[in-house]
Structures are given as structure tokens and as C-alpha cells.
Design a protein that fits this description.
The structure holds two protein chains of two kinds. By secondary structure, chain A is an all-alpha fold. Chain A contains two helices and no strands. Chain B is mainly alpha-helical. The chains are: A mainly alpha, B mainly alpha.
């Protein structure tokens, strides 16, 4: 299959940017899914050994890329300890 | 506390200061400090509970779906009650969690979970 693609690319070299852009888009989607699976505070992979990983985050933890209204540096823990 | 002051008085009667005495003093100090912290904590949260408006922003749950926020506060309320009553402390600070989950959770969920707790079939770890 790769041989066919290489033959076709040699006769139509304008198709090469297509590969770059499609490949880039697919990589970005996979990276976003990986970030969602591994870094999202709502997710727990190992329920026996690490049951509530979101409780280990600091009150300053920023998951979102753009914080429109919340000033993350001013947040602090405001729940009673027990 | 009376026992502690009697011990101090005996030490003042010219006995040599041994490391054992010093350690006891330090332990007493730490114990008193923790008691003071706990007293301050319940005062601080009493005031917060009186001025409560709605559930504050929780960085652990930044997305639109606040299901886990609701459930976590419900669990934390019951865990806090269990932990503080096991240590024989006042469970008033736990009311903070109760106010938060009452603000966040749908009433039907709360009723369902309360029913499950009473019948012993609640699935969460408390």
C-alpha cells in the first residue's frame, strides 16, 4: 500500500501537504484524547489503589487552557479538614 | 489539665530538667496547639456557614458536568461525620459539606442515597 502511495505521490506531488495536514489533525485529536484520559480531574483509572485522584489536586490547579473569570492564583482551600 | 499543672509544680521544686521532662512538655504543647487549631476551625466554619450563599468554585471539578462535585460532597459529609465523631469532636464543621451538596445535588438523588444509606445498600466508600 505504501508503494502505491509513493508511486501516486511522485506523479502528483501537490498531494504531499494533504498528508501533512491530515496527519497533523489526527495527531492533535489523539493528543487531546490522551490529555482528557490522563489529566482530566474527573477521571479515575485505578479504583482500588488510587480511588479519588481528584482529591490530590491543589486548590490552585488549573485544568482549562483559558480561564476567563477565575483568578487561579487567588484560590485557596476552603473546606473543613477531617 | 489539672494533672499537667501538678506535674509542672513538682518539676519546679528544684528537680533536674531531664530530656524526658522536656519531651513531655513538648507533647503537651503540641496537644494544646492542636486543640486550639480545632477550636479555631469550628469557629471559622461557623462563620462561613452563617454567610453561606452557594457552593463555591471547586478547582477539582472545573467542567460543566458537576455530578462528581455533588457526589464528592455527599461522601465528604458522611465521612466527616464519621471521622469527627470517631475522634469525639464536634461535627459542626461538617455542615459545610451538607450545605454544598444540598446546593448542587438534585433532590431525588439525595433522597435515593439517603434511602440506600439507611437500608445499608449505599455503594460509596464512607
Amino acid at each position: 500500500m505504501l508503494l502505491t502511495i509513493r508511486k501516486q505521490l511522485r506523479s502528483h506531488p501537490a498531494l504531499i501537504p494533504l498528508f501533512f495536514f491530515i496527519g497533523g489533525g489526527a495527531t492533535m485529536s489523539l493528543l487531546y484524547l490522551a490529555r482528557l484520559g490522563l489529566r482530566n480531574p474527573d477521571v479515575s483509572w485505578d479504583r482500588k489503589n488510587n480511588p479519588e485522584p481528584w482529591n490530590k489536586l491543589s486548590p490552585n490547579y488549573q485544568y482549562k487552557f483559558f480561564a476567563v473569570n477565575t483568578d487561579y492564583s487567588k484560590l485557596k482551600k476552603d473546606r473543613p479538614d477531617f | 489539665v489539672l494533672g499537667a499543672s501538678a506535674r509542672y509544680h513538682r518539676r519546679d521544686q528544684g528537680a533536674l530538667w531531664s530530656t524526658h521532662t522536656r519531651r513531655q512538655l513538648q507533647e503537651e504543647l503540641v496537644h494544646l496547639q492542636s486543640l486550639f487549631e480545632k477550636l479555631k476551625m469550628s469557629d471559622k466554619f461557623e462563620e462561613k456557614i452563617k454567610n453561606y450563599r452557594t457552593a463555591p468554585f471547586d478547582a477539582r471539578f472545573p467542567n460543566t458536568n458537576q455530578t462528581r462535585n455533588c457526589y464528592q460532597n455527599y461522601l465528604d459529609f458522611h465521612r466527616c461525620n464519621k471521622a469527627l465523631s470517631a475522634k469525639n469532636q464536634d461535627t459542626a464543621p461538617c455542615q459545610w459539606y451538607r450545605r454544598v451538596y444540598k446546593s448542587l445535588c438534585p433532590i431525588s438523588w439525595v433522597e435515593k442515597w439517603d434511602g440506600q444509606l439507611e437500608s445499608g445498600s449505599f455503594a460509596g466508600r464512607i
